[in-house]
């Protein structure tokens, strides 16, 4: 059973719940939806910003990198801190920072202010994700994969909704209409305040134990083997999120350039892919609970490769059709990977959440910058032909040991 940490005191041992606390899980999922809807507006309006600010692909990639690297660097720091001292209301605070970034984005007059807005949205994400992942596990009732799926599907759904809302609200009305989404941030702050109160009550009710360093061993593995296994899991995250960066940042440009579709239509097709990612996330956790984490991880590697290899050579219809299994299969592994890592480091739930969400964000940000420069020097079509081979990195999963998550 993982150690949690009382605010102002030593670690607190939480007794296992008899069943998942669905009200809290759904509250976390809803707030994750609102949070990631806000965040996904940024890449969704890149075609609009490219025209308004006369940006090249490299500058667009830099905006995405500032957002995602800010989140990735700070998330493990936040997670490590909250493993030692819980911050129940940091969830609402993170949403407040995202709100500030959203408002700044709607008002940005020059490129430098766009970068600052992206950094604030990334900071809000860094504060939100580690503690939200911890609360999801706390409310899981022992069904850890299910809890992570419910939590993560909210974020993926929000990521899918962002481009759709951008297509029908921001594109027709301009950059200033982004400010309307501050209502979503305010709603998220209300929900997360309620979740924070539940979290604080659980902290007060849990018995205090003497302060000690959280456990860093799991499944009877040596420290060296645990470090090597975490490195393999991060390599899997790299392959998935570097590939997905090609979609989140450049899929609309790919469709516009190769097939001549309009901006609004390209956003709808991006929604198809991101909706498939959301569906894959909700399926992956329960399947991992039932059949083990490793089969889900392996399925996400071997299952997606034929589709990624075929996509660069498909016509418009089949391009859109192929993104459905790609999104489903790629996303199914994330809950399994996260729970697998939590079982390896049972006393460092916040650190694991911050490290893996942060690394995913960082790889997405670096991927956006690298792929943007590659597109500038070659072509957007070449980017997709090259990225098709990234899932092969997942073959490192052969070296994953079986543990309690396995």
Keyphrases for this structure?
transmembrane, transmembrane helix, two-stranded antiparallel ribbon, Fosmidomycin resistance protein, membrane, mainly alpha, disordered N terminus, single chain, MFS_trans_sf, 406 residues, 2 strands
Helix content percent band: over 70%
Can you summarize the main beta sheet? Answer: 2 strands, antiparallel
Q: What is the CATH level 1 assignment?
A: Mainly Alpha
Regions with little confidence, pLDDT below 50 for 5+ residues: 1-16, 210-217
- Mean pLDDT across the residues is 81
Number of strands: 2
What CATH architecture would you give?
Up-down Bundle
Secondary-structure-based class equals: mainly alpha
Strand order of the largest sheet: 1-2
The number of helical runs is 14
Q: What distance lies between the first and last C-alpha atoms, to the nearest angstrom?
A: 17 Å
């Amino acid at each position: 059973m993982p150690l949690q940490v009382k605010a102002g005191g030593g670690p607190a041992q939480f007794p296992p719940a008899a069943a998942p606390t669905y009200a809290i899980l759904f509250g976390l999922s809803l707030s994750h939806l609102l949070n990631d809807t806000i965040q996904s507006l940024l890449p969704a309006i890149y075609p609009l910003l490219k025209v308004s600010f006369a940006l090249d692909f490299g500058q667009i990639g830099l905006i995405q990198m500032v957002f995602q690297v800010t989140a990735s660097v700070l998330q493990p720091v936040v997670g490590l801190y909250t493993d030692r001292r819980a911050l129940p209301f940091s969830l609402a605070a993170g949403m407040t920072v995202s709100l500030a970034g959203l408002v700044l984005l709607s008002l940005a007059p020059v490129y430098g202010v766009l970068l600052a807005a992206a950094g604030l949205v990334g900071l809000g994400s860094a504060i939100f994700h580690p503690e939200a992942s911890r609360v999801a596990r706390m409310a899981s009732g022992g069904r850890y994969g299910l809890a992570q799926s419910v939590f993560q599907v909210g974020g993926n759904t929000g990521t899918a909704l962002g481009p759709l809302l951008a297509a029908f609200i921001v594109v027709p009305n301009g950059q200033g209409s982004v400010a309307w989404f501050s209502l979503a941030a305010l709603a998220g702050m209300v929900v997360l305040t309620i979740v924070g109160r539940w979290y604080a009550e659980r902290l007060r009710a849990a018995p205090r134990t003497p302060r000690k360093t959280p456990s860093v061993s799991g499944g009877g593995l040596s420290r060296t083997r645990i470090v090597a296994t975490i490195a393999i899991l991060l390599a899997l995250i790299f392959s998935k999120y570097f590939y997905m960066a090609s979609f989140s940042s450049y899929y609309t440009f790919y469709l516009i350039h190769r097939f001549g579709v309009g901006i609004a239509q390209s956003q709808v097709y991006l929604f198809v892919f991101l909706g498939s990612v959301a569906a894959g996330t909700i399926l992956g956790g329960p399947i991992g609970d039932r059949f083990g984490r490793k089969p889900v991880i392996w399925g996400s590697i071997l299952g997606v490769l034929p589709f990624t290899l075929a996509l660069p050579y498909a016509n418009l219809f089949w391009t859109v059709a192929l993104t459905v299994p790609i999104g489903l299969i790629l996303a199914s592994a994330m809950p399994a990977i996260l729970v697998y890592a939590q079982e390896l480091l049972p006393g460092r739930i916040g650190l694991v959440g911050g490290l893996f969400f942060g690394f995913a964000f960082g790889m997405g940000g670096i991927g956006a910058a690298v792929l943007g420069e590659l597109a500038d020097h070659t072509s957007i079509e070449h980017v997709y032909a090259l990225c098709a081979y990234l899932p092969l990195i997942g073959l490192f999963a052969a070296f994953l040991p079986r543990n309690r998550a396995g």
